[in-house]
UniProtKB/TrEMBL annotation:
GO terms for molecular function: ATP binding; ATP hydrolysis activity; L-isoleucine transmembrane transporter activity; L-phenylalanine transmembrane transporter activity; L-valine transmembrane transporter activity. Gene3D superfamilies: P-loop containing nucleotide triphosphate hydrolases. It comes from the Bacteria. Keywords: ATP-binding, Nucleotide-binding, Transport. This is ABC transporter ATP-binding protein. It comes from Sinanaerobacter chloroacetimidivorans. The keyword Phosphoprotein does not apply. Pfam families: ABC_tran (PF00005), BCA_ABC_TP_C (PF12399). GO terms for cellular component: plasma membrane.
C-alpha cells in the first residue's frame, strides 16, 4: 500500500506540559485510522500539528514524501489534508450550500469567496461549484437543507455539514476530530456508513479521533491509542480492544469518574 503520511516523533510542549511526547505513525492511502485516548491525552494536539494549526516542538511530518512539518494550514490544506474541529466551525449566517462552496475554494483566493457570496461575475464557475457542493451535501444526506442557514440545522446535520464542506476541497486525507460527538446512536451508525462510502468513492484516507468505541471499532482498520501524550498501543481493532494498557487507561478513567 503506498504511503500517504509519515509522522516521526512529533512533540508539543505548552509551557512545561508535554501535551504530545513522541507521536509516530504511518498512514496509507485509502485506509481509515482511529486515534483514541482519554480526555487530555493529546489527540487534538496531534491533529492540530498535522493540519498546521500548531507548530510541533519536535518531530517531522511527510505527506507523499514531501516534508510539511510546521507548514501553514492553508498550504497543508492545498496539498489535500483537510480537517474538522471538535467544536463546530461553520459559517453560521450563510446557507448550507454556500458553506460547502466556500469549502471547495480552499485553493482559491479570497476574492473568489467574496464572489460566491454576492457578485455575479463568476456565474459559470459558480454553477459548477454549486453542482459539486450539492453532490457533497447528497453524500452526507443533508441536501434538503441546502438553502437553510447553517445555524438553523439540527446539531447532527451541522456535524455532517462540516464533513461535506471539507469533502468539497478534494481531500486525500481527512482529519476528523470527534465527528460523532453529540450524535445519538442511530446518527452515529449512519455516519459510519456514510464515511465508509466516502472512503470508497474518493479513495481517501481518514484519521479520526473518537470516544464512541462502537464507531471506532466498526469503522477503523487500524487504531492508535494515546495516554499522556504518548502512543500506548497501536494495531487492528481486535488487538486494541484486548490491550491491557488500553483497558487500564479506560477503566482508570471510569473509576475516577465514578
Ligand atoms: N493551546 C494550548 N495551550 C496549553 N495547553 C494546551 C493547549 N492545547 C491543549 N493543551 C493541553 O494539552 C493536553 C492535551 O490536550 P488535547 O486537546 O490534545 O487532548 P485531547 O486528547 O484532544 O482531549 P479531549 O478528548 O478532551 O478532546 C491537555 O492537558 C490540554 O489541557
Ligand atoms: Mg480533543
Amino acid at each position: 500500500m503506498p504511503e500517504l503520511l509519515t509522522v516521526n516523533g512529533l512533540e508539543k510542549n505548552f509551557k512545561g506540559l508535554k501535551a504530545v511526547n513522541g507521536f509516530s505513525a504511518k498512514l496509507s492511502e485509502n485506509q481509515i485510522y482511529g486515534l483514541i485516548g482519554t480526555n487530555g491525552a493529546g489527540k487534538t494536539t496531534v491533529i492540530n500539528m498535522l493540519s498546521g494549526v500548531l507548530k510541533p516542538s519536535a518531530g517531522s511530518v511527510f505527506f507523499r514524501g514531501i516534508e510539511i512539518t510546521g507548514e501553514r494550514p492553508d498550504k497543508i490544506a492545498k496539498l489535500g489534508i483537510l480537517r474538522t474541529y471538535q467544536n463546530l466551525r461553520l459559517f453560521k449566517k450563510v446557507s448550507v450550500l454556500q458553506n460547502v462552496m466556500i469549502g471547495a475554494q480552499i485553493d482559491k483566493s479570497y476574492s473568489n469567496i467574496e464572489a460566491i457570496l454576492g457578485m455575479t461575475r463568476f456565474r459559470q464557475e459558480e454553477r459548477k461549484l454549486e453542482e459539486k457542493a450539492l453532490n457533497m451535501l447528497e453524500l452526507m444526506g443533508i441536501e434538503d437543507y441546502a438553502k437553510e442557514r447553517a445555524d438553523s440545522l439540527p446539531y447532527g446535520a451541522q456535524r455532517k455539514l462540516e464533513i461535506a464542506r471539507i469533502l468539497a476541497a478534494s481531500p486525500k486525507l481527512l482529519l476528523l476530530d470527534e465527528p460523532a460527538a453529540g450524535l445519538n446512536p442511530q446518527e452515529s451508525l449512519e455516519l459510519v456508513q456514510r464515511l465508509k462510502k466516502i472512503r470508497e468513492e474518493f479513495e481517501l484516507a481518514i484519521l479520526l479521533i473518537e470516544h464512541d468505541m462502537k464507531v471506532v471499532m466498526s469503522l477503523c482498520e487500524y487504531i492508535y491509542a494515546m495516554a499522556a501524550g504518548q502512543i500506548i498501543a497501536e494495531g487492528e481493532p481486535k488487538v486494541i480492544r484486548e490491550d491491557p494498557k488500553v483497558i487500564e487507561a479506560y477503566l482508570g478513567r471510569a473509576k475516577k469518574d465514578a
